[in-house]
Amino acid sequence: MYAKKWEDFPEGDQGYAIYHHLLPKESATNLDIALVRVKPGRETPAHTHENEDQAYIVLEGRGILRLGGGEQELSEKMIVHIPPHTEHSVRNSDDIYEFKYIYVASWF
């Protein structure tokens, strides 16, 4: 067990978003948690996960989730489930502010 502030974790800048992985791999073998900050006007690449369920918890901002051929507007306090094998990406629909969410992933 551990407890830390997410500001204490290193940032990983992917160009389109900044990631703070909040759960060290040695702490949990089947779970990943990260704070994601999508930059203004940017989009995460479309991708799938073979054996992974994901949930997004929107903290701040507005975005568009592209999920399995459809789109869903996202805003603060929304929760989204992304099943395995489902193509998805997130676009920040704001040109000034970051779009922030927590993702939780569990794989089997």
Question: What does this 3D model show about the protein?
Answer:
With 108 residues, this protein is mostly beta strands. The protein has a single domain, classed as Jelly Rolls (Sandwich), CATH 2.60.120. The protein has no helices and 9 strands. β1 and β2 (17-21) form a beta hairpin. The radius of gyration is 14 Å and the shape is globular.
How would you summarize this macromolecular structure in one to three sentences?
With 108 residues, this protein is mainly beta. The chain contains no helices and nine strands. The chain has a six-stranded antiparallel β-sheet with strand order 1-2-3-9-4-7, with no helix packed on it.
List the defining traits of the structure above:
single chain, 108 residues, mainly beta, Jelly Rolls, 6-stranded antiparallel beta sheet, 9 strands, 0% helix
Q: What top-tier CATH class fits best?
A: Mainly Beta
CATH homologous group name: Jelly Rolls
Number of helices: 0
Q: How far from one another are the termini? A: 22 Å
What's the overall average pLDDT, rounded?
92
How many beta-strand runs? Answer: 9
Low-pLDDT stretches are none
Helix content: under 10%
* CATH fold-level name: Jelly Rolls
Query: Could you say how many structural domains there are in total?
Result: 1
Any idea what the shape is? globular
| CATH architectural name | Sandwich
Report Rg.
14 Å
The string of secondary-structure elements, in order, is: EEEEEEEEE
**Proportion of residues in β-strands:** over 45%
Largest sheet: 6 strands, antiparallel
Sheet/helix structural class: mainly beta
Spatial strand sequence of the major β-sheet: 1-2-3-9-4-7
